[in-house]
Queue: 2 jobs
Job 1
Amino acid sequence: MEKNRVSIPQVETLLQQKKLSSYFDLISRAIVTNLIRDELNQIREQKLFDLSFDKIVQRCETRCAQVYKMRVHQVINCTGVVVHTNLGRSPISKTTWQAATNLNTHYSSLEFNLESGKRGQRNSLVEHLLTTLTDSEAALVVNNNAAAIYLILSTFAKRKEVIVSRGELVQIGGGFRIPSILKESRAKLVEVGTTNITTRDDYSKALNEKSAAILKVHRSNFALRGFTDEVSTKELSELLDEEQLLIVDQGSGVIEADLPGEQKVKEHIKMGAHLVSFSCDKALGSVQAGAIVGSKKLIDKLIKSPLYRVLRPGKTVLTLLEEDLIKHLNKVDPPVLSLIKKEKEKVKEETQKLIAFLNSEKFSLVESKITLGGGTTPDESLDSYAVQINSTKSANSVIKILRNQEVPIIGFIEKGKVHLNLATLLEGELELLISSLEKIKELL
Ligand SMILES: *Cc1c(COP(=O)(O)O)cnc(C)c1O
């Protein structure tokens, strides 16, 4: 027994092993130490006293690697989904990121008016840019679109009725459900119409003195086809009296681009919506935030709400968004829009280049599709190309090998084969992808 105990190394000795100390910068010395202690305890508990020193180091290393994988990593998106909710939605433009560096690593005038020398408004230029882009009177930014809707409903519809079409009671992504948000904000949901058809009459019958608003929600991640009908923003605005609001959850944040199935924010404003909310990290292509645009009187009220103080974004978000909105006004596309607009022939060329370089039967060119994703144009896809990997291994094991690369490659499986769509590659990633695949092609 005594002898066995001696065979378990000291934590300090293990910490000096290069394989483990190399994780200090990646996950911290404290966490590496805890993981080693934990592993040694397990070894003791399971009485694995005949493990060699190298084996113990290896077990500790595996633990460190598992924890390191929990960090946010750069990945190569070969899914063909441009705004991918699991992959960070919109990548931020490099020049935007650089422009915001000094603002975020120094003190800034976030709430200081340089003109008057007095306390300023953190929303100021962003508001100006958003109103210009969407032809609206006023604008406000919060942490995301869910927060935007919550703020609007809590402020204007608490204990009052909000009318929503049954065709629009949607769940978007990870648990954002329109009925739950209504409940949370203590507004009373009044469902009208049916799943596929909601008419003007359905809305007008539901309207009464207790109605605070009609909420129109973009369906985002599902499509209705066949025998369907809905009421336009314009028709809805004509149904309301002075006190009642028309709120539109536009979702995607399409400002100028003509994307199939998407209505621009300013079109809703023009058609009479009082408030329109949208995400800033979908088709707008910027940072995670939610924007509210519309009537000045209403937005002033939102700004004064104590809830706004809870939901307002920090300087990182505002400085990046400011920069991206200026780019939009100057007609400079964010990365997601450049990807969407990329010629499919260019994608074909790049795919052929990669296949020629790898020079193996394992890779072939196939037709494929790209989708916008992230709750935009659910039913629409654009023609594209992809690399098909012809492996004797199972698709799942190929996908896993790709995912285990230093910069993980995220592909997708179709008809039992792994595909990599290069349409969603960003600057410099084609070279990175080619060199990674070159290294592992024998394994595939
Ligand atoms: C994406 C989306 C949301 C949620 O937006 P977040 O910015 O993720 O909070 C809400 N409504 C619609 C219609 C959406 O498309």
Job 2
Amino acid sequence: MGDASVLTGSPAPSGPAGTHATGPTSDVLPMVVGPTSLAPEVLGCLASQPPPLDDQGYMADVAAGLARLRDLVQAPSAASFIVPGTGTSGLESLAISLLEPGVPVLVASTGMWGDRWRDICIRNGIPAVSPAAGPGQPPDPDLMERLVEHHGCQAVLITHTDSSSGVRTDPAPLAAMAVRHGALSLVDGIAAAGSEVISQADWRVDAYLTGAPKALGAPAGVIGVTLSPRATETLLTRSWTPHGYSLDLRPWLPVMAATERGEFGYFQTPASALTLAFAEALRLALAEGRHARVERHVRLREALHAGLAGLGFRFLVQDGAVRSNGITVCWLPDTAEPAPFLRAVVRAGVQVQAGTHPAAASRTFRIGHHGNVSADDIDRTLAALRAAKAEVAVR
Ligand SMILES: *Cc1c(COP(=O)(O)O)cnc(C)c1O
């Protein structure tokens, strides 16, 4: 980090899939949920002087990024935003910008991220109904519909893929249900964008939140938001004043629109280097091809899961049809304690991560296999897990 040799360092890995070989500090392969490794082209965006914010070239690059974001999530008539912030600030931004205090929302939680979104809502005075799905289970659409009806919910909040459980939720039926009840649908796609099929307009999703440092392979610090015409209308006509100021999306709306016309607008100083890096990561993702990129992740996931099953690992998500393409959560081997097991995997050359699911953290571990990950990375991961399992078994 900050080491100039990283920027000029290793040669470009072969093909858009890349590898983790450019890691700055060690030879350990990070198979983590995020931050994921950056392609050389994305790294390059971080090493230039900040442009004046009304520079025509800079504004054109941001405008291209905004258009690519619409393309990635398949929402041609969405209002597109690239704004400073972490994923968490994005969850809060959607909540305070679009949700009216005092009116309930339904959170279809599948792990820690839905739980966090629920807590963000509650702290901002938005009551949240949030039935806990069992660890590794997707939300039950019938139960969700009954709750939306019973509580008169103004919105349904969905985690596309939850990185604590590895569950992928299909946003389409929940968004359609929201439409039936006159509610908005908001989707946390932070861990999904770049590895999962997204079809925002067809699904009738009102707000899709795209993260940078997960499957898209961009540096943390900016987020993407795409709002349907219905959500944009809510933003413009809402009758309440949000509790927050800096996270409000409304003042960004004319700024983004101006940028797309090649004109300057200001709300807050954008994170220009991070914005350019994000726009470049989007370019690479679209150059690989939306379908081809998802297919690559499916192939790698299938290879990983076949290998894990062969080694005797058990999955938190039982149903193969709702497993994330980019994140896998497994139960630890019976005999293993989390920390010694993770250390044994590192000794074998790969870093995987501790569990974070609220109900299963101490008995699970997580593998991130999204972004610039190759088939070779999957093989190395399986070899390291085999070695670590053998090591903890003999103790
Ligand atoms: C990582 C993640 C977040 C939070 O992102 P931060 O940048 O760490 O705040 C939110 N939702 C999901 C699904 C994530 O995977």
